[in-house]
Design a protein that fits this description.
Elements (H helix, E strand, L loop, with lengths): L15 H34 L3 H30 L2 H21 L3 H29 L5 H8 L1 H13 L7 H22 L20 H35 L5 H28 L5 H19 L3 H25 L10 H30 L1 H20 L6
Helix pairs in contact: 1-2, 1-4, 1-6, 1-7, 2-4, 2-12, 3-4, 3-7, 4-12, 5-9, 5-11, 6-9, 8-11, 8-12, 8-13, 9-11, 10-11, 10-13, 12-13
Length: 400
């Protein structure tokens, strides 16, 4: 009689000290870019360009997304080739921290965008290998827990943005300096103290010269498309949320958006941890993703059909929770479908395109729909994207 396959609790496990240090470093990555891209850079461009700030911000967003897309793949791949994740992370951290200086000092908009591209170069030298390091060191039996811990990142980034912009706390240049200090303090511990236990190669690994099986290619495609759909919905909604709510209630303020956004992020952390642990214990990595995509779709549908502010807010909270937890858990469960252990950095860089491409799609979708048809059709389109993600994942099975 053959013995049954090992359950999730029988598989090798990474120690929690490393997982916590890694989660802190990943949150440091979010602190590196969320306050800068959502608050400090727009404020800086407004100071420098006045009424032309929206146009210059569009240029900066496009240049930054393009740089991030290429460098994340490139440095992930280089860390594959050299086999030295920690060294690339450290070098990327150093360049990122040094790049904050020019961003805070330059006064010409074009020079500021070039400095931003240099900052993206360093940031993705850090983030690409950092993502691959988790794929190397966290077994499938702890992917859900890792995803729950990764949900700390956006909440930490948003709270940092609120902290450094407290009136009177620091000058514009000082705010960027505070961000740099926080990033260093959060990423350095895993570089200095992180000692992960070595993990065996997954049984489903594909040798370099072998062809990836059809089932594996299908899983990769489903995971990639589903994340792109949810990321696109989130990016569009994030960019135009204030305008949408003001179309319903002109008295709605940006401070109201900030409070609701913070509430959603804070609630998502414990819910992501609980969901991730459930996925680990029940060996069900994909079922929560499909359910969360469905929750996001329902929230968008409620927003699209809302006839008042309270219904629209309820829909946004539902969407925000579903999409935030989805993206955190998806980031860790994606590591299951990477076919070649010696190319994890490159392959995760290709998955990272689902984070950067939406920045290029946002103006196309919004400008193509909202001026002629209003926000309702745009929300229904986003709901359809989220529903497509749900359906793609509903019948997908991933095995360790």
């Amino acid at each position: 009689m053959t013995s049954p396959p090992p359950g999730p609790l029988d598989q090798p496990r990474q120690h929690h000290a490393f997982l916590l240090l890694y989660a802190l470093a990943w949150a440091g990555g979010a602190v590196a870019y969320i306050p800068l891209l959502t608050l400090l850079l727009p404020m800086r461009l407004t100071d420098l360009t006045g009424s032309a700030d929206v146009q210059w911000l569009a240029y900066a967003t496009f240049a930054g997304a393009l740089t991030a897309s290429l460098t994340n793949i490139g440095f992930g791949w280089l860390s594959d080739i050299t086999g030295n994740r920690r060294g690339w992370i450290a070098a990327g951290l150093a360049i990122t921290l040094l790049s904050y200086g020019p961003i805070s000092q330059l006064t010409a908009p074009l020079a500021l965008i070039l400095a931003l591209m240099g900052w993206q170069f360093g940031l993705n030298m850090m983030l690409g290998p950092l993502a691959a390091w988790a794929a190397d060191t966290v077994p499938d039996s702890q992917r859900g827990l890792l995803g729950g811990l990764l949900a700390l990142a956006p909440a930490t980034g948003a709270l940092t943005g609120a902290l450094v912009t407290i009136p009177g706390l620091a000058s514009p240049e000082g705010r960027i300096g505070l961000v740099a200090l926080l990033v260093a303090g959060m990423v350095l511990p895993v570089l200095l103290k992180g000692r992960p236990l070595p993990m065996p190669l997954p049984a489903a690994s594909v040798p370099e010269a072998a062809t990836v099986p059809t089932a594996a290619r299908r899983a990769i495609a489903c995971m990639w498309i589903a994340r792109l759909a949810i990321q696109t919905s989130e990016a569009v909604l994030f960019a135009y949320l204030l305008f949408l709510f003001r179309a319903i209630d002109p008295a709605f303020r940006d401070a109201d958006i900030a409070r609701i956004f913070s509430l959603v992020l804070l609630l998502s952390v414990p819910l992501a941890l609980l969901t991730g642990r459930w996925a680990d214990r029940n060996a069900q990595p994909v079922a929560p993703l499909a359910a969360l995509a469905g929750v996001a779709a329902a929230g968008l549908a409620l927003m699209a059909s809302a006839n008042g502010l309270s219904h629209a807010l309820a829909g946004y909270i539902l969407f925000g929770l579903g999409s935030t937890i989805f993206l955190a858990l998806h980031a860790s469960q994606t590591m299951r479908v990477l076919p070649r252990p010696n190319r994890r950095g490159r392959d995760l860089g290709l998955f990272n395109l689902t984070n950067t491409l939406p920045s290029l799609l946002v103006p196309v979708l919004a400008l193509g729909i909202v001026p002629g048809f209003g926000y309702g059709p745009l929300l229904w389109l986003l709901a359809a994207l989220a529903l497509a993600a749900c359906l793609l994942l509903a019948n997908l099975r991933l095995f360790s």
